[in-house]
Specification:
The structure is a single chain. With 449 residues, the chain is α+β, with helices and mostly antiparallel strands. Helix content is 57%, strand content 16%. It folds into three domains: 2-150, PAS domain (Beta-Lactamase), CATH 3.30.450.20; 211-293, Helix Hairpins, CATH 1.10.287; 300-443, 2-Layer Sandwich (Heat Shock Protein 90). A five-stranded antiparallel beta sheet has the order 2-1-5-4-3, sandwiched between helices. The protein is rod-shaped. The mean pLDDT is 82.
């Protein structure tokens, strides 16, 4: 963000400098050229006035020669022509003579104002000696353009220097302004990331940056404090509920065990059925508590070796699968590292494998595999059981979404919550040939394992 702000401000400053400095330099250049021309024409008129006295009034050429000598001392070249365009007098240098000078003289003697050309680094100027429409002759003055070029170079040099200084000052100001704005935002972003990773006690600095950023940091801290209080409140409630429900259920199970001692016949059958319902209620309470814990989870991402966890969980569930006559296998895959909360992938696979083993009949198959996809780790649990209707798939990740489930109906809700809280996705697909496949896309670990 600092770099983008800096470059944006530099671009705006550069545009403003170009729009301000370049037109000013062009204007000053034009004024210098006009001033140079006016000074040259004034010097030419002085010689033309002295030449008129000689050409028109037939006075001695002393005054004309004096002005020509003065022009020569300043570095100018001048030449005086009569009405026949014949050279009358000139300075020692011949830059005011030649074809271009003759062309200027003809235009002046014809009563026109010629366009002064530039001849080998010298600017030519021509003025009539006497009246414009009835001149007694013409004067051509050639002056070196080096002083003009030097002044123009100075103007553009100073303009470039001003632009460079302005740009350098803009760099310093832009960097400081960008850092002033971006540093508190970067700190706020880091704090938000830590809060999202489970560090509920993280708070943002409120002292730096623009007022809007400080207000944003203060609002964020208020939100974080309320979130921390809410999460801690839910955790305390879950712990209380866990204790308050499990204790009476355990006591009730114990009482039923005592009552069932030595009982036979229909009474024993009824007590066994009550024990089954209590066991089901216990599993339901455990499932609800597991869902609540998953919903309140704010995991700190860790590097999880997916291939190792898959192999471990398949090995752990293999005795259960053999007891039920189900073939449980793990497909070979690459060594991949996902970014997940500690123990979450184990819990997810335990729920999915348990559901799959409950769903498939004897001699059925359950396969667990993983592979690398575009930017994520894909894990799947595939079975060849009865599958799931489309309507049931749409609500399968909700609590009690599948009323036909053999268990509590909470396993997929726990899976969905644990996957999504870690930034992944979960979906259900039909297994080719029949059955259900649960597909998980988990985020890749970005750091070092």
């Amino acid at each position: 963000m600092t770099r983008r702000l800096t470059w944006t401000l530099l671009a705006l400053t550069a545009v403003l400098l170009v729009l301000a400095v370049v037109p000013l330099a062009v204007l000053m250049t034009a004024r210098e050229r006009v001033a140079f021309r006016d000074d040259q024409r004034a010097a030419t008129r002085v010689i033309a006035a002295a030449a008129e006295e000689h050409l028109s009034d037939h006075k001695p050429a002393t005054g004309m020669r004096r002005e020509l000598d003065a022009a020569a001392r300043t570095g100018d070249c001048a030449a005086v022509y009569d009405t026949s365009a014949r050279l009358v007098a000139s300075t020692p240098c011949t830059a005011a003579q030649g074809e271009e000078a003759q062309e200027l003289v003809r235009h002046v003697l014809a009563g026109h104002e010629p366009e002064p050309p530039e001849n080998e680094g010298r600017l030519l100027a021509a003025e009539p000696a006497g009246e414009v429409h009835r001149p007694a002759g013409s004067v051509v003055l050639a002056r070196s353009a080096d002083p003009l070029d030097a002044r123009l170079a100075t103007i553009w040099g100073w303009s470039a220097g001003i632009g460079f200084v302005g740009l350098a000052a803009s760099v310093l100001l832009s960097v400081r302004l960008a850092r002033w704005v971006s540093r508190p935002l970067s700190a706020l972003d880091a704090t938000a990331r830590k809060l999202g990773e489970g560090a509920l006690d993280e708070r943002a600095e409120v002292g730096g940056g623009p007022p809007e950023v400080r207000r944003l940091a203060a609002t964020f801290n208020t939100m974080a404090a309320r979130t921390e209080a809410l999460v801690h409140g839910h955790r305390v409630m879950i712990a209380d509920v866990s204790h308050q429900l499990r204790t009476p259920l355990a006591a009730l199970r114990l009482r039923l065990d005592v009552l069932g001692t030595g009982v036979e016949g229909e009474t024993a059958a009824e007590l066994d059925a009550a024990q089954v319902e209590i066991a089901r209620l216990s599993r339901l309470v455990d499932g609800l508590l597991a869902v609540s814990r998953a919903e309140q989870a704010t995991p700190r991402p860790t590097a999880v070796r997916v291939d190792e966890v898959v192999t471990e969980r398949v090995a752990a569930w293999s005795p259960v699968a053999e007891e039920r006559g189900v073939r449980l296998t793990a497909s070979e895959g690459p060594a991949l590292i996902a970014s997940l909360g500690s123990g979450h992938l184990e819990q997810v696979l335990d729920n999915l494998i348990a559901n799959a083993l409950d769903a498939v009949p004897d001699e059925g198959n359950v396969a667990v595999g993983h592979r690398l996809t575009a930017g994520s780790v894909r894990v799947w649990v595939r079975d060849d059981g009865p599958g799931m209707p489309g309507a049931a798939k749409e609500v399968a990740f909700h609590r009690f979404g599948n009323p036909a489930a053999r268990g509590t109906g909470l396993g997929l809700a726990i899976v969905h919550r644990l996957v999504t809280v870690n930034g992944g996705t979960a979906r259900l697909e039909d297994t080719p040939g029949g059955g259900l496949t649960v597909v998980l896309d988990l985020p890749l670990w970005a750091g070092k394992p």
